[in-house]
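Sharing in case it's useful to others searching the archive later.

Someone asked me privately for the predicted structure of LLM class flavin-dependent oxidoreductase, so I'm posting the question and my answer publicly. Question first, with the sequence:
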Amino acid sequence: MTAPPRTPRVRRFGVGLYTGQKAGGADYADAAPLAVAAEEAGFDSFWVTEHHGLPDGYLPSPLVLAAALSSVTSRIALGTGVLLAPLHHPVRLAEDAAVVDRLSGGRLLLGLGIGYAEHEYRAFGVDPATRGARLDALLAALRDAWTGEPFDSPGLGLAGVRITPTPTGHLPIWIGGYAPRAVRRAGLLADGHLVGKGERHIVTAASEQLAQVRDPADPGFTRAVNVTCVLDTDDGGGTAARRAFAGQQRVYERMQAGREVYAGLVPDPEGAGSTGGDGLTAGGIDRHIQASGDPDQVTATLLTLLDDLAAWADVHLVLRFLFPDPDLDAQLRRVRAFGEQVLPALRTHHAPEVHP
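And my answer, the predicted structure tokens:
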């Protein structure tokens, strides 16, 4: 009896997320040496992200920065994790993504999401109640736009529009989000789903939801997971990383609580009665870290996650260890340490083959 064909396995690993945040203003030029270091360390992708109106210079223009990074790198994929799609005009987004794809030789991974901060929607004059419908319409419009032929998108108010240039080939679109509707949207309409927080129960829930609409053995669909990592090193790198990450998390929680941008999604960590360690609602930064410890401990956690995703043909882990830090050299050391002490073991890990 002939054995059924084996499902091919693809396992890739990225570096994320570059946000550009710095006390006293951002220096986006730091992204270039970090992307080069990630490429030299053997990683497959480098990720940037997007927010607007934050006082520490959080990156507002991920595709602009990705275009710049395309000129200093040659192999590594450049990902947006995520671009806040409903805030962007569909024609401009289609054009800019195609230009970055061409500048990079087809290395763009276009991660899209809907965001949560109300102030961003107000700033762009977009009704947040329409964000899901806008993203649905945008996904179809991007595919039509990149054919180079005139197309209509009534839901976005477009008629007889032509987009040039077109991408070099099939430009992958991944959708981020936790809600069941967002996960289902990714499974039905996109080339991949990006989990923003690599906790096992979140990844498992997404797997169960995606498997209802997408075959895990489909090589054309990517399971991508952001995993926040801190590597404890002899030079105190872990302590510095936790300190930098705590500062970043405070920015998120101030935004979500509404101290600066009125989102009101979490309690004010600095309000009356707050007992959170590090000024954080969860009581300390370690609760926001999924993989920490020495290289063996971090690697073991990541290998467990890969095993959890063994049924999926294409898996892309984004190791999130770039936190806002005024010391570029410290950031570069983190990239090299992960490349030397963690990445090789991930490369040699072979998930069990799964027969269809």
